[in-house]
Amino acid sequence: MRKLAFALLIIASMNACKTEKETNTGKLTLMTLDPGHFHASLIQKSLLPGIDSLCYVYGPKSFGLTSHIGLLEQYNSRADNPTHWKIEQYVGSDFLAKMLEEKPGNIVVLAGNNKQKTDYIHKSVSAELNVLSDKPMAINKEGFNLLIDAFNVAEEKKVMLYDIMTERYNIFSILQKELIHNKEIFGTLEKGTAEHPAIIKNSVHHFYKEVSGKPLIRPDWYYDVEQEGEGIVDVTTHAIDLVQWQCFPENVFDYKNDVQLLGANRFPTKISKQQFEQSTGSTNFPGFLEKDVKNDTLNVYANGDINYTLKGIHVKVAVQWNYQAPAGSGDTHLSQVRGTRAIVSIKQGKDENYKPKLYIEPVNNTGFTDAEKKNIASEIEKIAKIHQGITLKEKDKGFILEVPETLVEGHEEHFAHVANKFFNYVREGKMPEWEKSYMLTKYFITTEALAKAKTIR
What we know:
This protein is α/β, with parallel strands linked by helices. The protein folds into two domains: 2-164, Rossmann fold; 168-409, Dihydrodipicolinate Reductase, domain 2 (2-Layer Sandwich). It has 14 helices and 19 strands. The strands form three sheets. Strands 7, 10, 11, 12, 13, 14, 15, 16, 17, 18 and 19 form an eleven-stranded mixed beta sheet that branches. The longest helix is centred in the N-terminal third of the chain and has 23 residues, at 2-24. The relative contact order is 0.14.
């Protein structure tokens, strides 16, 4: 009997060592849980080094799951750099319990209905599974409190939890960050005021659009803020993350002391039945949306703004969702950071033909002096040695930093960069403390803003 017990102990130890060894040597296997957004598929759009080609999908019978598998098969069959995913799927109402029981992989990928996401995160890390999650990880205060506990559980179980912040890999965000930290060009970060924040991040998006040349069909729940999340807890995550990543690199925040919420607003986008049908394919508003329907018009609280300070620096982030962009236009974006010597901005509007442009502008109406212009040109020459092809062009009283197309990647390509960064953290068995603090600070700001936001009808 003792021999049998000893043998079983040895086998258990070998299995535990094998699991740890596979993680440390880089063998990672993906399990996508309840996919409902195409971002889940984009994680697997490119070949991922060290990732098992056998992947798993668990979910209920849904359009989201079918679309996810369809995209993976499309990536497999394309002529240019095809992937080689072998897909195992489980479809059933008990999909979550089934995944936690079988655990054929060690990475859970989440992108879909945000109402359940925080619970999925918590249950996954509790089962000793790493989680790569689309934003937002939490859409209200209750979710944020559960997320805090999920991070504590993940630390205890020695697994990783990470959200997909693609904008860190946008060349314009990268260059703006480098300019902000170039004292010869930018000076130092201004403190700003509530009326004139030092950092402004604004964006305008559209519900109905084309992705990869085809109309983007959204699930009907996408228009329910209780499932998708309101605008100030969703897209704002990217803006708040960039504030932290660009202006306070690798800073470990204490959100209870480093953040002061000054105010927030929320207001709706009005969607007609015809627009809803065009966007979702559903001819009527479902029952769960009736609470938001007035006079046959759906009110979606997808818009808002947040004013806050981070370590004493005044910040404003704002988001707006319209139904569809006018012909010839598109999404717009403003990212402005004010320094003592210059204002560095990314602008994407009509004047930029709805493509991002990077500006270096004077802090006063007199413009840059000849000496300042010479100094800026000299500093850009140094940066161009790293980012080859960028050039400086005078524009009004300032400059545009021209970025060649060779340095510009599409948004979809950024997902592989985020995934590989996360996979490396998993292989190393550790994540920098600042990464965790960025996530907690970010979701504290968004959920606290929602809880205190003023409603504008």
